[in-house]
């Protein structure tokens, strides 16, 4: 990571913190305010780019990379930054009074996984941050498992995806605060078969 990249995410993080702190009094005024403030966090995270790569890629995206079809791939911010923005504002006495804590969750949200554009659409469909009655159709830590997306990891020190190996699990490491917070928005959705793993998370 270069000094310029470090400076960029620090500026984005501090600027986002200041914006959210300045507007916190408006959070409960209307849906439009809640959408605006949570999207401030979303835009801050996206502007910070990818300072600490996970080196994770889905199996289908890896196939695309190795077969000259990288244009079919994209990046997934797998923590859903806009939803995390909501979590921060509903726990503002913690996150907006402790910049180091805010920075830690901000950096987590910059983490990305290389996926296909189709997979990204499927992952995005599991949440709907622009609804007042926000819904989560699969827990963040289990959404790759829910969609059957297998993950590979690029070898440390390597820049090409051909140096990737399958990892044992597609259950993601997610902050405990987020896992607990999203439970109240979790919706059981039955299509072809019961989502028993999601039901277990709600117990």
Strand content: 5-15%
Mean pLDDT: 88
Radius of gyration: 17 Å
Could you spell the SSE succession in H and E letters? HHEHEHHHEHHEEHH
User: Class by helix and strand content?
Assistant: mainly alpha
| Total E-strand runs | 5
Query: What shape does the CA trace take?
Result: globular
Helix content: 40-55%
List the domain count as a whole number: 1
Put simply, the count of helices is 10
| Low confidence ranges | 193-203
Question: How are strands sequenced across the largest beta sheet?
Answer: 1-4-5
- Gap between N and C termini: 41 Å
The biggest beta sheet, please? 3 strands, antiparallel
Structural description of this entry:
- The chain has one domain (3-202).
- The chain has helices at residues 3-23, 31-47, 59-66, 81-90, 92-95, 99-109, 117-124, 143-146, 176-182, 196-202, and strands spanning 56-58, 73-77, 112-116, 151-154, 164-166.
- The N and C termini lie far apart (41 Å).
- α1 (3-23) runs antiparallel to α2 and α2 crosses α4.
- It is globular, with a radius of gyration of 17 Å.
- The relative contact order is 0.15.
- The protein contains ten helices and five strands; from the N terminus they run ααβαβαααβααββαα.
- The chain has a three-stranded antiparallel β-sheet.
- Helices cover 48% and strands 10% of the residues.
- The chain is mainly alpha-helical.
Give a topology summary.
Blueprint: H1 3-23, H2 31-47, E1 56-58, H3 59-66, E2 73-77, H4 81-90, H5 92-95, H6 99-109, E3 112-116, H7 117-124, H8 143-146, E4 151-154, E5 164-166, H9 176-182, H10 196-202
Antiparallel strand pairs: 1-4, 2-3, 4-5
